[in-house]
């Protein structure tokens, strides 16, 4: 019999210890197949061979009924005894080469990998697929360091794009992280994960069929978006020209709808960001407790996460708020304040980018540079901090925002004398604003709030939201600085809030100094 063609998209890995007490493992397997599982691995670390064979036969009877391949974990003897479709081995089990010899050429063989080197070796040793993990911390595995989508991407990028080796991700994959794992791990070489391997999310779920259906549809949604990302598909994105024309209407809509934004922000700027949000026409709620983040996610229209004054409780709240905003498709604006300054800030920034999908990253040049290095942007080719660097520290700032936006599949707004915004497809430079903005604390944080208010009313175009958010405050900055009653940063601060409120939609068009790049 020739090797079966495998659909890796939803791969169930069983674990009797984690199986929901309301049903047997066999029921879990059948329900999950009815819900869309395309491949099953029977993993029984503690069963003696005879009992393992017995259980494997029963599972195989079910999988065969639905034409779903069954792989046996680790034990090649069991795989051969029941004529399973293949086997999966770990790094510490029988070697891939030996397993292939025993199984023959027509069985499916997979191996667990956690580094680019292991992945390349698996390819050379004749594996059909690799399981890449551990992606997130799980009940079954607690490695010292998890890969996160960024680590998964590094492994995908180490593999040749055109080789038939398939890839699945494993470790803490759930319905609420599947989509972003697939999108974020998509490699610059065009490699997209072929599937997700799930343990607890299915066998431990109350209803294995419903859980599988949800996981399958999240995988498909993520795969479609990742494919578009890889192809650089502009479908559905307005041109820069039409975005600029839409800016007055965006301000009008914001004022009509007055969207509520959940701020998990820092102690220094909380009051100013709340007032700036109100002056613009939005509604702020400053809520740093993780306990109310889920409730709030039902009523807010966007979220700002700001790491300015980092404490453990702030971080907990950011994870909760981000996770629930993702679940409800509400935009998340991330402001990695001082991201490069300390290990805690770097690590928190890395964890936030791994733990949720951030729709818009807003930062100054230093912060965006830190993000770029954390996510593995090719810093050489985007020419960061060169000798001829411009005011904001990059030889080519537009290339930096474009590269980070492409890699994270989000919008990046980099502030400074000139602001740069990109979604990876469209990039602009905004030349409005006044030096006084750089002389008061929190002007960047207020920009994040403004972007979040606009993102709430522009859910399908966060690029337009970021451009509008920056422009609105920069115009207010120019107007405030020109006032005869402004004599320095103190009077500017008050006048700035006034001028945010006084800004007219028409000025968003007539005074904008925005260039497409
Ligand atoms: N010299 C300047 N000329 C024009 N606009 C400026 C200038 N300095 C800052 N701005 C504007 O101020 C806003 C905040 O940018 P900045 O890069 O200073 O933020 P930041 O460093 O993150 O601030 P903070 O950490 O205090 O919140 C942006 O809208 C930017 O355009
Ligand atoms: C000054 C300062 N310190 C932590 S946060 C903050 C405000 C700028 O974001």
TrEMBL record:
Catalytic activity: 2-(2-carboxy-4-methylthiazol-5-yl)ethyl phosphate + 4-amino-2-methyl-5-(diphosphooxymethyl)pyrimidine + 2 H(+) = thiamine phosphate + CO2 + diphosphate; 2-[(2R,5Z)-2-carboxy-4-methylthiazol-5(2H)-ylidene]ethyl phosphate + 4-amino-2-methyl-5-(diphosphooxymethyl)pyrimidine + 2 H(+) = thiamine phosphate + CO2 + diphosphate; 5-(2-hydroxyethyl)-4-methylthiazole + ATP = 4-methyl-5-(2-phosphooxyethyl)-thiazole + ADP + H(+); 4-methyl-5-(2-phosphooxyethyl)-thiazole + 4-amino-2-methyl-5-(diphosphooxymethyl)pyrimidine + H(+) = thiamine phosphate + diphosphate
InterPro entries the record matches: Aldolase_TIM, Hyethyz_kinase, Ribokinase-like, ThiamineP_synth_sf, ThiamineP_synth_TenI, TMP_synthase
Domain Thiamine phosphate synthase/TenI: 10-202
Entry-linked Gene3D superfamilies: 3.40.1190.20, Aldolase class I (3.20.20.70)
GO molecular function, one term: ATP binding
Signal peptide: none
Family in the record: In the N-terminal section; belongs to the thiamine-phosphate synthase family. In the C-terminal section; belongs to the Thz kinase family.
Name under which the protein is recorded: Thiamine-phosphate diphosphorylase / hydroxyethylthiazole kinase
Taxonomic classification: Eukaryota, Fungi, Fungi incertae sedis, Mucoromycota, Mortierellomycotina
CDD domains registered for this protein in UniProt: THZ_kinase (cd01170), TMP_TenI (cd00564)
Keywords for the protein's UniProt record, in alphabetical order: ATP-binding, Kinase, Magnesium, Metal-binding, Nucleotide-binding, Thiamine biosynthesis, Transferase
Pathway stated in the Swiss-Prot or TrEMBL entry: Cofactor biosynthesis; thiamine diphosphate biosynthesis; thiamine phosphate from 4-amino-2-methyl-5-diphosphomethylpyrimidine and 4-methyl-5-(2-phosphoethyl)-thiazole: step 1/1; Cofactor biosynthesis; thiamine diphosphate biosynthesis; 4-methyl-5-(2-phosphoethyl)-thiazole from 5-(2-hydroxyethyl)-4-methylthiazole: step 1/1
Pfam families: HK, TMP-TENI
HAMAP family the UniProt entry points to: Thz_kinase (MF_00228), TMP_synthase (MF_00097)
BP GO annotations: thiamine biosynthetic process
Cofactor names: Mg(2+)
Tree of life domain: Eukaryota
Gene Ontology CC annotation, any one: cytoplasm
Biological role stated in the UniProt entry: Condenses 4-methyl-5-(beta-hydroxyethyl)thiazole monophosphate (THZ-P) and 2-methyl-4-amino-5-hydroxymethyl pyrimidine pyrophosphate (HMP-PP) to form thiamine monophosphate (TMP).
């Amino acid at each position: 019999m020739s090797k079966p063609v495998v659909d890796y998209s939803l791969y169930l890995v069983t674990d009797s210890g984690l199986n929901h007490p309301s049903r047997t493992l066999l029921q879990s397997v059948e329900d999950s197949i009815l819900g869309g599982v395309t491949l099953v691995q029977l993993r029984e670390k503690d069963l003696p061979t005879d009992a393992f064979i017995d259980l494997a036969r029963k599972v195989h009877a079910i999988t065969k009924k639905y034409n779903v391949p069954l792989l046996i974990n680790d034990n090649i003897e069991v795989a051969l005894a029941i004529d399973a479709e293949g086997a999966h081995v770990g790094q510490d089990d029988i070697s891939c080469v030996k397993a292939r010899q025993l199984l023959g050429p027509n069985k499916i063989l997979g191996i667990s990998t956690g580094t680019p080197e292991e992945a390349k070796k698996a390819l050379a040793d004749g594996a059909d697929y690799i399981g890449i993990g551990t992606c997130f911390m799980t009940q079954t595995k607690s490695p010292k360091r998890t890969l996160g989508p960024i680590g998964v991407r590094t492994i995908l990028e180490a593999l040749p794009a055109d080789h038939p080796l398939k890839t699945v991700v494993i470790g803490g994959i759930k319905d609420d992280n599947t989509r972003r794992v697939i999108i974020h791990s998509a490699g610059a070489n065009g490699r997209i994960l072929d599937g997700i391997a799930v343990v607890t999310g299915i066998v431990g779920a109350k209803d294995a069929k419903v859980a599988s259906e949800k996981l399958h549809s999240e995988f498909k949604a993520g795969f479609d978006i990742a494919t578009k990302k890889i192809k650089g598909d502009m479908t559905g994105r307005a041109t820069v020209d039409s975005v600029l024309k839409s800016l007055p209407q965006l301000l009008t809509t914001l004022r009509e709808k007055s969207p509520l934004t959940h701020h998990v922000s820092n102690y220094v700027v909380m009051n100013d960001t709340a007032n700036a949000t109100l002056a613009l026409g939005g509604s702020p709620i400053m809520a740093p407790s993780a306990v109310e983040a889920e409730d709030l996610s039902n009523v807010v229209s966007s979220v700002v996460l700001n790491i300015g004054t980092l404490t453990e409780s702030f971080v907990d709240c950011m994870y909760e708020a981000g996770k629930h905003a993702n679940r409800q498709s509400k935009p998340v604006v991330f402001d990695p304040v001082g991201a490069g300054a300390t290990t805690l800030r770097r690590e928190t920034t890395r964890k936030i980018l791994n733990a949720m999908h951030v729709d818009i990253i807003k930062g100054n040049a230093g912060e965006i540079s830190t993000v770029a290095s954390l996510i593995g942007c090719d810093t050489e080719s985007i020419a960061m901090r060169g000798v001829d660097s411009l005011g904001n520290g990059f030889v080519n700032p537009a290339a930096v925002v474009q590269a980070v936006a492409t890699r994270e599949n989000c919008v990046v707004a980099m502030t400074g004398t000139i602001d740069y915004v990109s979604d990876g497809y469209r990039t602009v430079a905004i030349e409005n604003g006044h030096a006084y903005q750089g002389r008061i604390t929190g002007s960047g944080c207020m920009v994040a709030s403004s972007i979040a208010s606009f993102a709430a009313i522009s859910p399908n175009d966060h690029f337009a939201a970021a451009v509008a958010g920056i422009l609105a405050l920069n115009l207010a900055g120019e107007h405030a600085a020109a006032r005869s009653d402004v004599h320095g940063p103190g009077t500017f601060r008050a006048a700035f809030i006034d001028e945010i409120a006084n800004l007219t939609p028409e000025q968003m068009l007539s005074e904008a100094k925005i260039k497409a790049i």
